[in-house]
Amino acid sequence: MVETQLRPRRSKAPFVVLLLLLLLGGAGGGGYLYYKRWQEKRRIYRFGPIVMPERVARVPSNWSVQTLADRLKKSGKIRDVTAFDEVADKVGLKSVASGAYYLPAKASPEELARLFKVGPTHTKITFPEGFTGWQIAARLQKEGFPGAKELPAMLYPTGKTPPFEGTLNPDTYLLPIDASPKSLIAHLQDGFKTTLKALPRPFPKVDGKPLSTSELVTLASLVEREAAGREEMPVVAGVILNRLNRPMRLQIDATIQYARQLKDGGQGHKARLLYADLKIPSPYNTYLNDGLPPGPICNPGKAALKAAARPASTDALFYVYSPRLKKHLFAKSYSEHLKNVRICAKERIERLKDKADKTKST
Fold first, then answer.
1. Dihedral sign from CA coordinates of 18, 22, 23, 27
2. Same domain, 306 and 158
3. N or C: which terminus of the chain has fewer CB atoms within 10 Å of its end residue's CB?
């Protein structure tokens, strides 16, 4: 009888354990990688750059970092307030100065924090209609624009007709604080070019010929300085054109004021002109010279430019300001004008008397 030797069975337990270890190791490694990827996505979400929905951030008053973070989150410029607080602390941003901040096209929270730490990049500034280049330069200097110090020399070169007067558009601007003088001029001229293109053509005629663009802007500057309000600008423009077509000397006081300013570097304005002032030797003196002055005497606004381009149809040749009515009285003849002058002179005397009586009573 042959005995059959039985082989002992190998246990499957080691293989099961190894398989379990491999599975657990794979799961652990996969879990770790998933966690790392989640962390990176979270970091990018919190600290990554965002395309700016708006390029300008305005801070109306000094803000805390928390207020800034809340506003940035609300306007879609950051995703996570806490993340911004972290980077603000990192770069040393403690508070935010009031002003306008021009933002890059794309920025991370840290880049924004550094930008706000430096301080405002832009300033909101308004130039009223009728401002001269001197007044514009003075306001820019007052608002802290370093480049404005060089503006007067550029705007008023010695011995030349001011090349930019009349083309510096009066408006409200958001200007870069570090702008160069040339850049500041270019910013103001952009709006002027837009307004000029929109004016109706052809321009009014003098001696049968349409006014040139330069002449029209000069006419508009006279209207801007002479008219008591926008509603009478077209009539004032009509009177000036009537005198040019007669021809009659314009005899406009505002041109005397400008001549005085040119002589004294922008400081020659007087509250009331004297007869001696009317004899100032200057090409801008419309009491001594025929026609329009050689250039604009201020920077006119849209209303004055439109009035110059489309003046009112009027027979009037004269006007004088009424203190009581706070507007001009217009006249067709010199005799009628003299009558209006006497009326207005009486009004001024009465006004001065009332002012003196009020001073005594106080």
1. positive
2. yes
3. N
All residues at 6 or more sequence positions from 119 whose CB lies less than 8 Å from its CB, including other chains = 97, 99
- Full-model pTM: 0.79
Provide the phi-psi class of 207: left if phi over 0, else alpha when psi is between -120 and 50, else beta: left
Mean residue pLDDT across the chain: 88
Q: How confident is the model at residue 4 (pLDDT cuts 50, 70, 90)?
A: very low
Q: What is the pLDDT of residues 102-161, one digit of tens each?
A: 888 898 999 999 999 999 999 889 999 999 999 999 999 999 999 999 999 999 998 899
Residues 6+ apart with CB under 8 A from 193: none
- For the purposes of burial, counting CB atoms within 10 Å of the CB of 188, is it exposed (0-12), middle (13-18) or buried (19 or more)? buried
Q: What are the backbone dihedrals phi and psi of residue 279, each rounded to the nearest 5 degrees, phi first?
A: -105, 10
The pLDDT of residue 16 is 61
Helical segments of the chain, H only: 13-47, 65-74, 81-91, 109-118, 133-142, 151-155, 181-198, 213-226, 233-245, 253-263, 302-309, 334-361
Do both 167 and 284 map to the same domain?
Answer: yes
In a domain, 95, yes or no: yes
Non-local (6+) Cβ contacts of 8 within 8 A are none
> Do 161 and 279 fall within a single domain?
yes
- Residue 362 pLDDT: 62
Q: Are residues 285 and 173 in the same domain?
A: yes
Q: Look at residues 318, 299, 170 and name the one whose alpha carbon lies nearest to residue 224.
A: 299
Domain identity same for 179 and 140: yes
Count of structural domains, the chain: 3
- Are residues 101 and 132 located together in one domain of the fold? no
Residue 70 falls inside a structural domain:
yes
CB atoms within 10 A of CB 344: 18
Range of the domain at 341: 319-362
